[in-house]
Design goal:
- By secondary structure, this protein is α/β, with parallel strands linked by helices.
- It has helices at residues 16-25, 48-57, 66-69, 86-90, 93-106, 124-135, 152-162, 174-189, 200-204; strands at residues 6-10, 30-33, 61-64, 79-80, 83-84, 111-115, 140-143, 149-151.
- It has one domain (6-193): Protein-Tyrosine Phosphatase, Chain A (Alpha-Beta Complex), CATH 3.90.190.
- The chain contains nine helices and eight strands.
- The protein is globular.
């Protein structure tokens, strides 16, 4: 049996009842929403107001933390080639403050990070936030939609496998390998800035 300090989950297209059931099974009593834009047109039950009301009704505290721990930075300097730079974001004071608040909350409650993507390795909650928590010694469990809870160390092994590295995480040089794998995956899935559409009139004039 694994003991976890904090959990993570991606809501994806799951039904609200199933979502709450997964949280209850893990004995979660607080959700930290790390979406930069906490809304969903396709699945309105996951928009902030609806979700907060549902969770509160089920005795689960809702915490909006997208301003400090979201994956879509407002600062253009936190993008590299138009892609959100997780390493640069992790060094920002407001991110460090948010991470500290999250750790404090985890000391008082059973907290679960929440974002949209089903697969942890497709989401900044894993590649940025959970990574930062793990580096501070916390044990993170990723709640999957089949009800299993994947330890973050197992998630990192999957990440290395996807990156083309099949090795023991405790061998020499593993820190460099995992850092490279994180950077590679982030370049694939991180938020991209929208490219402005040229003004045809301006081009012709």
């Amino acid at each position: 049996m694994h003991s976890f300090d904090i959990f993570s989950i991606g809501h994806s297209n799951i039904a609200a009842d199933r979502f709450v059931a997964l949280l209850r099974d893990a004995k979660v009593n607080a959700v930290a929403d790390v979406r930069s834009a906490p809304s969903s047109r396709r699945f309105p039950w996951f928009s902030k107001q609806n979700l907060e009301a549902r969770l509160t009704g089920d005795g689960i505290t809702y915490m909006a933390m997208g301003n400090s721990l979201g994956g879509r930075p407002r600062d253009d300097g936190l993008y590299r080639d138009g892609i959100a730079d997780y390493d640069a974001m992790a060094a920002q004071p407001h991110y460090q403050t948010g991470l500290g608040q999250l750790i404090d909350n985890a000391g008082r409650s059973r907290v679960c990070l929440m974002c949209a993507e089903r697969e942890p390795l497709d989401c900044h909650r894993c590649l940025l936030v959970a990574r930062g928590l793990a580096e501070r010694g916390l044990a993170i469990g990723h709640i999957l939609h089949d009800g299993t809870i994947e330890p973050h160390a197992t998630t990192e092994r999957r990440l290395l496998s996807w990156h083309g590295e099949d090795c023991d995480l405790f061998t020499s040089g593993q820190r460099e390998l995992i850092a490279a794998a994180y950077r590679h995956r982030a370049r694939v899935v991180a938020f991209r800035q929208k490219v402005p559409v040229p003004d045809a009139a301006a081009e012709n004039g």
